């Protein structure tokens, strides 16, 4: 009778220990899943941000492409006139003159007549 009770006590203790082990395993799995979920959420947020950035860049590209098309249509498709206008408007001739001036200053030419 004592042996049976001892076996039952041992079996009961083993069951408790198995239950504790299973609870610890479940807790560990839960923590891993929480970590995976957090990483997935971060990846989703990054993906969403990239998609928004791409949409913004696409909108910017379309807007920048509309301006030259509008200019070209306005001047009747004359590409040379549009090119000249853009060069004047963006100060290209002034930049070329400044670059040439800087280059000439460095040469220190000696001109005699």
From TrEMBL:
Assigned keywords, A-Z: Cell membrane, Membrane
UniProt subcellular location: Cell membrane; Membrane, Caveola
Signal peptide, first to last residue: none
Family: Belongs to the band 7/mec-2 family. Flotillin subfamily.
Xref: PANTHER family: FLOTILLIN-LIKE PROTEIN 1-RELATED, FLOTILLIN-RELATED
InterPro entries xrefs: Flotillin_fam
Membrane topology, from the record: Lipid-anchor
Any single GO CC term annotated in Swiss-Prot or TrEMBL for this entry: caveola
Organism: Pyrus ussuriensis x Pyrus communis
Protein's name in the database: Flotillin-like
Superkingdom per UniProt: Eukaryota
């Amino acid at each position: 009778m004592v042996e049976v009770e001892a076996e039952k006590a041992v079996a009961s203790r083993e069951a408790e220990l198995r239950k504790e082990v299973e609870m610890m395993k479940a807790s560990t799995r839960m923590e891993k899943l929480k970590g995976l979920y957090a990483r997935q959420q971060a990846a989703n947020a990054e993906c969403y941000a990239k998609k928004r950035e791409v949409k913004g860049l696409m909108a910017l590209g379309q807007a920048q492409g509309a301006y030259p098309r509008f200019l070209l249509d306005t001047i009747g498709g004359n590409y040379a006139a549009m090119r000249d206008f853009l060069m004047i408007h963006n100060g290209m001739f002034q930049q070329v003159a400044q670059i040439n001036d800087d280059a000439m200053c460095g040469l220190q030419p000696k001109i005699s007549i």
